[in-house]
Amino acid sequence: MRWMWIDRVVELVPRERLVAVKHVSLAEEHLHDHFPAVAADDGSILRPAMPVMPMSLIVEGMAQTGGILVGHAEDFREKVILAKVSKATLEQDALPGCTLRYTAVIKSFSEMGASILGTIEMAEPEANGSPSFETVGSIELIFSHLDRNMAGVAYPEHNFVFGEGFKTLLRTSGVLS
Amino acid sequence: MQRDEIFEKVRDVLVEALAVDEDEVTPEATIFGDLGAESIDMLDIGFQLEQAFGFKIEQGEMFPEGVTSDPDMVQDGKVTEAGLTMLRERAPHINTAALEADPRLEKVREIFTVDALVSFVERKLAA
């Protein structure tokens, strides 16, 4: 099973940009481990739990967003892997209940891979009206077309990168029929 | 574009792509050794050079691929005459003199210097 870090693709302009959203939920186990409460020997709480979505998983969410955009450009024939996180900044913690919006834009594309400029926006839940997004970070990523950059290394024929997890996401998002 | 102007732009790309300090990027510095690049960084450097100078770079154009895995190019841990000829033909921007003097395989990475990258850009712009 693939751990998916985006819930839905909401916009796709082929070979240009892809927008995806992720709803951060307290039902996700990782939030309970990041960060748990710290207790003293007598059981008293020194620091209460502070559930925050880890930055590394936000980078993964952006990588999945960008990876789909890059993969879609060649009709998912290439095995697209994240090769490098060139830059990553995040100015605000993502707390349970918030929505993250990832926008990936292709900066460069070649037969060898692609570079992506990613923007992270976040919206707090609203009691009334639509949530409003504000930019909280940016990420630059390099993706490699695996079979074209590993001279002499043979990988399986089937595209193990875009497996069932991705296909399900793409179907529920209306990208694949 | 003058060579020193090309050098400055190449230096900016390397500082950005490899997170090195400006003063580390000297003409003699080797990309893989002194500046610590890994093979995947070449993709990043290639993309950034394309954007900085406005040309397209083909796969293996900056640094020929497959040299080390080709038995005609490498024998007994040394680059053969055929390998040296291939490097001179496919990468005229790289000075192979040091490899001719010492053709051990591990020396291949040392001939790819900042100066070679500047020559590569200079040739691309002149083409």
Overall structural class of chain A, as computed from helix and strand content, comes to alpha+beta
CATH fold type of chain A = Thiol Ester Dehydrase, Chain A
Computed structural class of chain B = mainly alpha
Count of DSSP H/I helices of chain B: 5
Walkthrough of the structure:
The complex is a heterodimer of chains A (177) and B (127). By secondary structure, chain A is α+β, with helices and mostly antiparallel strands. Chain A is 18% helix and 36% strand. Chain A has a single domain, classed as Hotdog Thioesterase (Thiol Ester Dehydrase, Chain A, Roll), CATH 3.10.129.10. Chain A has helices at 30-33, 55-73, 164-172; strands at residues 8-13, 17-23, 38-39, 45-47, 80-90, 99-109, 113-123, 134-145. In chain A, the strands form two sheets. Chain A has a six-stranded antiparallel sheet. In chain A, a hairpin with a 5-residue loop joins strand 3 (38-39) and strand 4 (45-47). Chain A is globular, with a radius of gyration of 18 Å. Chain B folds into two domains: 1-60 and 112-127, ACP-like (Non-ribosomal Peptide Synthetase Peptidyl Carrier Protein, Chain A), CATH 1.10.1200.10; 64-111, no CATH class. Chain B is 45% helix and 3% strand. Chain A binds chain B through residues 83-84, 86, 107-108, 110-113, 115, 142, 144, 148-149, 151-152, and chain B through 16-17, 39-41, 43-44, 46-47, 50-51, 56-57, 59, 65-66, 69.
